[in-house]
Amino acid sequence: MDRRPTLEQIRRAPKVLLHDHLDGGLRPRTVVELADAVGYPDLPADEPEALGAWFTAAAASGSLDRYLETFRHTVAVMQTREALERVAAECVEDLAADGVVYAEVRYAPEQHLRAGLRLEEVVEAVLAGVAEGCRRAAGRGTPIRVGTLLTAMRHAARSREIAELAVRYRDDGVVGFDIAGAEAGHPPTRHLDAFEYLRRENAHFTIHAGEAFGLPSIWEALQWCGADRLGHGVRIVDDIGVDDSGEVRLGRLAAYVRDKRVPLEMCPSSNVQTGAASSVADHPIGLLRRLRFRVTVNTDNRLLGGITLSDEFAALVDAFGYDWDDLEWFTVNAMKSAFAPFDERLALINGLIKPGFARLRWEVR
Ligand SMILES: O=c1[nH]cnc2c1ncn2[C@H]1C[C@H](O)[C@@H](CO)O1
Ligand SMILES: [Zn+2]
């Protein structure tokens, strides 16, 4: 009998999501309604289903730069307090409905100032939306905890300011910092000032690295910037040799990443869309999981991928034959790597994740 986890069963598993962009996860209907409300005339389709299909097709061009161009439309409709609150609340509801019990959701405050909001107002609107989403989810019997990460855009020059913002709101639900955007030509070391400040403040940060650019980007993110985690990090595979007999040789950087248990926020479907991997089945996550790197599974952008975290796991089950042990391993890895305090992480692992997977295994045996 085939005991592979099904999509419906995976939805019931208590999942953890560390890498999800607020502005890449809107409901298509919400994009349409917000565009209507603010008079944004440039949406490529005015009907939710067609718009969703447009996003997934446009994002699957095989280029990160073109993938990022699609954010033009979502960012355009997220410029008011109401819009930000609504998008954040719906994001949390959607994650909870998919069985996510802990999530870190990121966005770049500097991209939401066009209608006159100040950075602080952007952060406060998103925090209010997250709190509302958590209340609604708890009311439906699907409680979820959500922290936010403030992202600075790597081509811009506001990273120090955004890092200071993250520290200012650290006790109100902002759990860390990130840099994102086009990787090639924008090395993380351009933002050293921000990272040094965060380290002095004992704050957490992740860096998008090793997605559209290779090992030098990962090396800089870890050894110059001091990143706690890697966003994607998929190109670490370039430092791993597998010979014809299957023997594996890790280069110095890959060995460091594995030895130090550096969390990899892997996003297989997104990588297929941007051309960082040719298919989910060919994605380096298969090798990296086998070698026991600290791999986590993430959505990156649910609207652009047309996916949920459960879909992402189901695709991995399909491609690699993963079982419940694998899915629980990815989930515990993610919870261990979260920016929430240690005691909360431990409580979620022992009180919710492990019992949840045990129950599911029992139910589907
Ligand atoms: O996968 C990604 N790589 C680099 N940058 C990204 C990715 N997904 C989203 N972004 C950018 C576009 C968003 O506007 C920004 C903040 O969420 O982060
Ligand atoms: Zn990302």
Provide an overview of this structure.
Helix content is 50%, strand content 14%. With 365 residues, it is α/β, with parallel strands linked by helices. It has one domain: TIM Barrel (Alpha-Beta Barrel), CATH 3.20.20.140. Strands 1-2-3-4-5-6-9-10 form an 8-stranded parallel sheet. It has a two-stranded antiparallel sheet with strand order 7-8. It is globular and about 60 Å long. The chain starts with 6 loop residues before the first helix and ends with a helix. The model has no long low-confidence stretch (mean pLDDT 97). Zinc ion binds next to strand 1.
Structural class: alpha/beta
Strand content: 5-15%
What percentage of residues falls in helices of 4 or more residues?
40-55%
Rough outline: globular
Secondary-structure blueprint:
Blueprint: H1 7-12, E1 15-21, H2 28-38, H3 48-59, H4 64-69, H5 71-76, H6 81-97, E2 100-107, H7 119-139, E3 145-153, H8 159-168, E4 174-180, H9 192-200, E5 205-209, H10 215-224, E6 229-232, E7 240-242, E8 248-250, H11 252-259, E9 264-266, H12 268-274, H13 285-290, E10 295-297, H14 302-305, H15 309-320, H16 324-337, H17 342-363
Parallel strand pairs: 1-2, 2-3, 3-4, 4-5, 5-6, 6-9, 9-10
Antiparallel strand pairs: 7-8
Helix pairs in contact: 2-3, 6-7, 8-9, 16-17
The protein binds 2'-deoxyinosine and zinc ion.
